[in-house]
Amino acid sequence: MPLLNDLSDETDWVEPDDVPRPVVTYGFASETFGDFELDPHRHAKSQLLLVQRGALSCEVEGGLWIVPPRSAIWIPGGAVHAMKVTGALEGYGAFVAPDVAVHLPATCSAVSVTPLLRELLIRSANLPLLYEEGGANSRLVTVLLDELAAAKAEDLHLPMPTHPRLRRIIDHMMATPADRGTLDAWADRAGMSTRTLERLIRRETGMSFGRWRQQFSVILAVRWLAGGASIQQVAGDLGYESVPSFVTMFRKALGTSPGRYMAERHAGRC
After folding, report:
1. What CATH number is given to the structural domain containing 148?
2. Which of 34, 52, 65, 196 could form a disulfide linkage to 90, CB 3.0–4.6 angstroms apart?
3. What is the pLDDT of residues 70-94, one digit of tens each?
4. CATH number of the domain that residue 241 is part of
5. By percentage, how much of the chain surpasses pLDDT 90?
6. Does some domain include residue 2?
7. DSSP characters for the chain?
8. Residue 5, in any domain of the structure
9. Domain match, 222 and 183 both
10. CA gap 212, 60 in Å, rounded
11. 263 and 177, same structural domain?
């Protein structure tokens, strides 16, 4: 499969759904700095996207996922999804046919990528598009599928409510992430009581308002840090009065400081 990059001719691309192989893997690279988006679309085959450099966010059927370096996102076949890229992006993608024999996730998830899984993706991306089946190439693909089935999920998911009033609040938060308004203030803006807002957000996301907003901050922080922003800049853009308070929130959510988290991600790059 050819490497997809900024200069690739459109004729290089072959629709993976049309390739009669259980797994179709490719590498991708973009040196375009800044953001670009892919409109909502779907594939018959399931999809794994591994990020080596940069950050990818993906909204799938009521949820938002962030994929930092050394992580991947799994998107089941048929799921409508839209993607947004932050900064230069490098990685690998694998499309998996729905009739493979191994048990794979039925729902979208962010997954941690082991060194073995990463090497298998790199190796399989160098196979011919119509690789020979029944020999060494098929065994390579089988091991890839086994590693994918064993991959652990990461907590980089933000449930997205569908209630119109909640979506207006969320849209405003997305546009002004530094706004640290209280629950009462957000309820007043939405024209509902504090109790009603808390009940709706818990019903639609499974989280309290405070927990949801913390996860929202973590998701944005990981996206911006992976795109090259400094910890000081991210703390300010999220409305934190001090860097230590932001670091404390980040460590509480992900178990480590933002600096160490990103250092580990970049150390895992090939």
Report:
1. 2.60.120.280
2. 52
3. 889 999 999 999 988 866 788 999 9
4. 1.10.10.60
5. 43
6. no
7. -PPB-TT--GGG---GGGS-SSEEEEEEEE---SEEEEEEE--SSEEEEEEEEEEEEEEETTEEEEE-TTEEEEE-TT--EEEEEEEEEEEEEEEE-TT-SS---SS-EEEEPPHHHHHHHHHHHTS-TTPPSSSHHHHHHHHHHHHHHHPPEES-EEE----HHHHHHHHHHHH-TT----HHHHHHHHTS-HHHHHHHHHHHHSS-HHHHHHHHHHHHHHHHHHTT--HHHHHHHTT-SSHHHHHHHHHHHHSS-HHHHHHHHHHT--
8. no
9. yes
10. 17
11. yes
Q: Pick the last residue of a domain from 109, 129, 154.
A: 154
Residue 175 lies in a domain: yes
Domain that holds residue 81: 10-154
Query: Region 195-213: what's the mean pLDDT?
Result: 92
Average pLDDT over residues 242-257: 93
pTM for the whole structure = 0.77
CA angle at residue 59 from 129 to 141, to 5 degrees?
A: 25
